[in-house]
């Protein structure tokens, strides 16, 4: 049996599945239920200074796609709306009762040294394992100069990380906002400030839909809406790329990453960890289905690791990072063609029309007066579009046809900046 | 036939509640959630095989996609634009041999997209909200007579009215609809037929004239004189006789008459039905008569067909349905004589059959006798060609019991078109009749538009 135990910057948990700072980790009641269900750790819902914030009614919007009720979720909630001392007392008690689980406290206070100096000792006193700095929340709090308003300025990120390391002995995880142009700048800033790790992504600024009767964005609060934070399955690809960018950056390649964004299954988790993440955090999937999903995440990851012969998480962590490269290094000699398995083909014509209208006119639609779909190898460029639109599993496969060799753009004659030798 | 004479034929066999349940919608409508789930199963095929398999060529992937975007008006326009009785067809089409039968999702999954149910979902919206979907083109001043207000006639009338022509719709019956009103099984259509026709006629330009029987109080030659064109959608108004002894005994009926009575009956507890019913035939009519006899409370219903089930014109799905309703099916037996006493049927004798080496049906000599108080004959409907009334009708060419038409649905009489069951080009189905009526209307329009007249 695979060993799922996780050691993330010295924080130990029985598995790499943590709940992200959000409603699922809002109070002792939820967190105890999560631990009972088997979650390895939690990042407690973000704490702030008293007086605590207030929330509005009508807080979530969802993108439904093709029968999926929540392909993406958007929220306009703020940080915890409970008094600081109540949260701290609960954190202390839960950590005492569940010593083997990771207890991370998320924090968001004004961007001045005094505030951090004030809150950190109280947090440390709960016995928690680490703090996570919420520099990500893109709505509400950012209007008050916190959350993503800090996360979007690398100098602030660095400064606050430094304060936190000065005034606390706890490991410090900086949670990054994706609402920037290049995630590497924020990650490098956290690294320079002395952060022990980064976690990402927080939610993406969004309007999920417009109510065409009310003529207002959703969720609608008495006729008005505001931009909110987007998360759930739809954001996973964005998070994967950002994690990969940090994992392969010269400056931050050794900076531990706790991956977040659209994770709901063991496979999602394995993908993030293959791209270098030390563990993962989950929010929307738990909000959609409840805490019990961790069950399959544990069993699924373990079974997959057994199948692949990975004993510990470290055995596969980061294995995909060396294979993430720049476009210019991709092998231009590599050539594949689509191949339709005629026994599996149900003759829906989707591959034909996709290739005909929007790709390379490489799939015929008729043979001897009958519906028949076949690839014309001479026209096929190997784009994979038909394979993706085909509704039948493994009906279209991509077959390698080149004769080997390697050449890339850096030396290509069409490249005005080509060098003489392959890079 | 008084109840005293025929004690075994009685009404009120079941409680009102049971009857209501038995005749309730056989496939209830989808709600929005289930419609969306069903619609999302459609792959939106290119040049979709389901469209080819629909006699009216409804753009099925398009209307289903419109359902998924909550564009129900658009979905209904797709459907009713191609098939103005798309609401009825959604209920009565044997989809297993039409659109759904050729859905690509049968391959691999044996579970087609529920096209019929989705079609009903989209069209129900029209009748529930009573919207107008189609406008009429500017008046052309042309007048067209349509005889027969079944699916073929109605479809022809609506198509012509949309194109700006003025239509008079004649029928021998007091109500329009043809078999939609008098034939289709109750549990498939409930109150729908009349509602649909009301909506169809609301386009305007169609004058309804009931009680007008061609060959009796209506004559083809005068119609040809009085109108710019004529369309005949006469259906098959006659029935085949068995031609055996005892056919005139009380309790022996045409299945279509039994069904028509049922469809016109407001209170099923007043509808008489036998205790032991034998139905002869293997088509829609036989199945529907058998099933509805059971639903009225007949103790035993036996459907007897002279060949094997594969030769029945009722589809496999309909045969299965009949069995689930408790209909006993006997194959390979043909009726020989009907026995009775005191003028009423008591039993019917069949002879078993088999095919000889040349595929001819032969009696085997073995006899099967079934006790019966009711025998329903459903061995086929036939054309009742209008009685010759001078020039025009005399010229109407009929071959093998159907009116002869060309590819444009023109009959041998100049200015007279025909379609639906009375021409019987393809299959005798509602949807085919609708298509015939539509194509004939287009042909008439083309002819009328060319300055000329249908009637030269
Ligand atoms: C019992 C039964 C069940 C059926 N079930 C189904 C089913 O489930 N699904 C399906 O697709 N099809 C079914 N069919 C077949 C379908 O009903 C017919 O194919 C369809 O109705 C044919 O339409 P039509 O317009 O050609 O003729 P009809 O519907 O028969 O209409 C013909 C009209 O012409 C009128 N008429 C006839 N002669 C004259 C005259 N001389 N003068 C004036 N008017 C005249 C009649 O009164 C009638 O109103 C069924 C048929 C029967 C008999
Ligand atoms: C309702 C809601 C409230 C959230 N509140 C916080 C918060 O207080 N602090 C924080 O750091 N992130 C917060 N998040 C962001 C999540 O922790 C997480 O980063 C994001 O949802 C992406 O992960 P997911 O795709 O698994 O949901 C919140 C998310 C949601 C949906
Ligand atoms: S891989 Fe691309 S180019 Fe080739 S057949 Fe498929 S869609 Fe067309
Ligand atoms: S998309 Fe797939 S199933 Fe459909 S026609 Fe093409 S190969 Fe066949
Ligand atoms: S064949 Fe089936 S899946 Fe394809 S368009 Fe028609 S209904 Fe949809």
From TrEMBL, chain A:
Chain ranges of the 4Fe-4S ferredoxin-type domain: 336-365, 371-401
E.C. numbers: 1.3.1.1
Cited Pfam families: DHO_dh, Fer4_21
The organism of origin for this protein: Tahibacter aquaticus
Molecular function (Gene Ontology), one example: dihydropyrimidine dehydrogenase (NAD+) activity
Reactions listed under catalytic activity: 5,6-dihydrothymine + NAD(+) = thymine + NADH + H(+); 5,6-dihydrouracil + NAD(+) = uracil + NADH + H(+)
PROSITE patterns from the UniProt entry: 4FE4S_FER_1, 4FE4S_FER_2
Gene3D superfamilies (UniProt xref): 3.30.70.20, Aldolase class I (3.20.20.70)
CDD domains assigned: DHPD_FMN
GO cellular component, one term: cytoplasm
Similarity comment: Belongs to the dihydropyrimidine dehydrogenase family.
Name of the protein this chain belongs to: dihydrouracil dehydrogenase (NAD(+))
Stretch forming the signal peptide: none
From TrEMBL, chain B:
InterPro entries listed in its UniProt record: DPD_II, FAD/NAD-bd_sf, FAD/NAD-binding_dom, Helical_ferredxn
SUPFAM superfamilies: alpha-helical ferredoxin, Nucleotide-binding domain
Reactions accelerated catalytically: 5,6-dihydrouracil + NAD(+) = uracil + NADH + H(+); 5,6-dihydrothymine + NAD(+) = thymine + NADH + H(+)
Signal peptide: none
Taxonomic superkingdom: Bacteria
Coiled-coil zones: none
Residue ranges annotated for the Dihydroprymidine dehydrogenase domain, each copy included: 21-129
One Pfam family here: Pyr_redox_2
Enzyme class: oxidoreductase
GO molecular function terms noted in the UniProt entry: dihydropyrimidine dehydrogenase (NAD+) activity; iron-sulfur cluster binding
Keywords: Oxidoreductase
Oligomeric form and interacting partners: Heterotetramer of 2 PreA and 2 PreT subunits.
Function, as annotated: Involved in pyrimidine base degradation. Catalyzes physiologically the reduction of uracil to 5,6-dihydrouracil (DHU) by using NADH as a specific cosubstrate. It also catalyzes the reverse reaction and the reduction of thymine to 5,6-dihydrothymine (DHT).
Listed name of the protein: dihydrouracil dehydrogenase (NAD(+))
Source species: Tahibacter aquaticus
């Amino acid at each position: 049996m695979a060993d799922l135990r996780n050691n993330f910057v010295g924080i130990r948990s029985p598995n790499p599945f943590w709940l992200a700072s959000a409603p699922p980790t809002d109070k002792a009641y939820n967190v105890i239920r999560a631990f009972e269900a088997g979650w390895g750790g939690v990042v407690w819902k973000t704490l702030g200074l008293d007086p605590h914030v207030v929330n509005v009614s009508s807080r979530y919007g969802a993108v439904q796609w093709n029968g999926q009720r929540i392909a993406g979720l958007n929220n306009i909630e703020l940080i915890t709306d409970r008094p600081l001392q109540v949260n701290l007392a609960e954190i202390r008690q839960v950590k005492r009762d569940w010593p083997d689980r990771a207890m991370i406290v998320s924090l968001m206070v004004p961007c001045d040294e005094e505030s951090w100096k004030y809150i950190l000792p109280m947090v440390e006193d709960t016995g928690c394992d680490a703090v996570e700095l919420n520099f990500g929340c893109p709505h509400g709090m950012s209007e008050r100069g916190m959350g993503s308003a800090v996360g979007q300025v690398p100098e602030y990120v660095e400064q606050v990380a430094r304060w936190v390391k000065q005034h606390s002995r706890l490991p410090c995880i900086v949670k990054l906002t994706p609402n920037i142009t290049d995630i590497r700048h924020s990650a490098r800033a956290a690294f320079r400030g002395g952060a022990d790790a980064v976690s990402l992504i927080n939610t993406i600024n969004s309007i999920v839909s417009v109510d065409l009767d009310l003529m207002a964005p959703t969720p609608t609060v008495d006729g008005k809406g505001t931009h909110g934070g987007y998360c759930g399955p739809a954001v996973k690809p964005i998070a994967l790329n950002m994690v990969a960018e940090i994992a392969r950056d010269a400056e931050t390649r050794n900076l531990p990453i706790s991956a977040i964004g659209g994770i709901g299954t063991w496979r999602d988790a394995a993908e993030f960890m293959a791209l270098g993440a030390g563990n993962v955090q989950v929010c929307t999937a738990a909000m959609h289905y409840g805490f019990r999903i961790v069950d399959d995440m544990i069993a699924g990851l373990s079974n997959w690791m057994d199948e692949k012969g990975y004993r510990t998480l470290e055995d596969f962590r980061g294995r995909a990072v060396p294979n993430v490269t720049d476009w210019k290094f991709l092998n231009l000699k590599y050539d594949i063609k689509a191949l339709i398995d005629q026994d599996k083909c149900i003759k829906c014509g989707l591959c034909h029309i996709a290739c005909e209208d929007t790709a390379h006119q490489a799939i015929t639609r008729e043979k001897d007066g009958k519906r028949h779909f076949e690839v014309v190898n001479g026209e096929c460029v190997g784009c994979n579009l038909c394979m993706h639109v085909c509704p039948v599993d493994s009906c279209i496969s991509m077959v390698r046809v080149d004769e080997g060799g390697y050449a890339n753009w850096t030396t290509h004659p069409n490249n005005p900046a080509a060098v003489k030798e392959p890079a | 036939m008084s109840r005293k004479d025929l004690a075994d034929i009685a009404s009120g066999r079941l409680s009102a509640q049971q009857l209501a349940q038995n005749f309730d919608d056989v496939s209830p409508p989808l709600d929005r959630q289930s419609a969306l789930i069903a619609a999302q199963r459609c792959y939106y095929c290119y040049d979709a095989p389901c469209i080819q398999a629909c006699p009216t060529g409804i753009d099925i992937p398009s209307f289903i996609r419109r359902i998924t975007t909550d564009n129900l008006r658009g979905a209904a326009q797709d459907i009713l634009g191609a098939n103005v009785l798309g609401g009825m067809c959604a209920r009565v089409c044997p989809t297993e041999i039409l659109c759904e039968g050729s859905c690509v999702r049968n391959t691999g999954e044996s579970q087609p997209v529920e096209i019929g149910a989705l079609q009903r979902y989209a069209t129900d919206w029209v009748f529930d909200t009573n919207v107008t979907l189609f406008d009429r083109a500017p008046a052309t001043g042309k007048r067209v007579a349509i005889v027969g207000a079944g699916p073929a006639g109605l479809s022809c009338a609506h198509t012509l009215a949309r194109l700006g022509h003025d239509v008079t719709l004649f029928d021998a019956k007091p109500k329009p609809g043809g078999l939609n009103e008098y034939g289709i099984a109750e549990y498939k259509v409930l109150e729908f037929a009349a509602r649909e026709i009301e909506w169809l006629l609301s386009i305007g330009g169609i004058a309804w004239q009931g009680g007008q029987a061609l060959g009796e109080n209506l004559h083809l030659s005068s119609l040809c004189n009085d109108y710019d064109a004529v369309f005949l959608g006469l259906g098959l108004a006659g029935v085949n006789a068995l031609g055996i002894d005892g056919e005139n005994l009380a309790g022996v009926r045409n299945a279509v008459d039994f069904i028509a009575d049922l469809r016109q009956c407001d209170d099923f507890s007043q509808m008489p039905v036998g205790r032991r019913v034998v139905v002869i035939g293997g088509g829609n009519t036989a199945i529907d008569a058998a099933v509805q006899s059971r639903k009225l409370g007949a103790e035993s219903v036996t459907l007897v067909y002279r060949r094997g089930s594969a030769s029945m014109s009722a589809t496999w799905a309909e045969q299965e349905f009949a069995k689930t309703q408790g209909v006993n099916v006997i194959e390979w037996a043909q009726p020989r004589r009907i026995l009775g006493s005191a003028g009423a049927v008591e039993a019917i004798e069949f002879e078993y059959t088999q095919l000889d080496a040349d595929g001819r049906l032969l009696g085997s000599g073995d006899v099967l006798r079934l006790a019966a108080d009711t025998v329903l004959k459903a061995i086929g409907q036939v054309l009742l060609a209008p009685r010759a009334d001078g020039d025009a009708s005399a010229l109407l060419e009929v071959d093998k019991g159907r009116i002869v038409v060309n590819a444009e649905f023109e009959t041998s009489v100049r200015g007279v078109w025909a379609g639906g069951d009375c021409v019987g080009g393809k299959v005798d189905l509602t949807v085919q009749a609708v298509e015939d009526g539509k194509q004939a209307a287009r042909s008439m329009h083309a002819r009328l538009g060319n300055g000329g007249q249908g009637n030269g």
